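tool_call: predict_structure(chain=1)
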Amino acid sequence: MIEPVMFYAFGALLLMAAVGVITAKNPVHAAMFLVLSFVASSFLWMLLEAEFLAIVLVLVYVGAVMAVSYTHLRAHETALRISYAVFCLKRGGGGGG
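tool_result:
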C-alpha cells in the first residue's frame, strides 16, 4: 500500500527537480537540482529492488557533479588570485607594508 504512494511522491520530486535543472538561472542551483534528481531516481531504483543500480547512480553521477563543481570553484579562485596580482602590479605596489 505504501509503495505506490512513495513511487508517485518520488516521481513528482524527480519531475520538479528536472524542471529546476532546466529553469535555474544560477549554475550552482542547477547542479543541486541535478543532484536532487539523481537522489530521487535512486529512490525509485530502490523501490524496484535494484539496490546496486541505486548505489551506483548516486556514487558515480553525484560524485562526478560534485567533482566538477569543486574543480570549477578552484579554477575561479585561481583566476581571482591572478587578477588581484595583476591589479597590484599595475598599481605599482608589491603588496608589502
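agent: DSSP finds three helices and no strands in the chain. Proceeding to next step.
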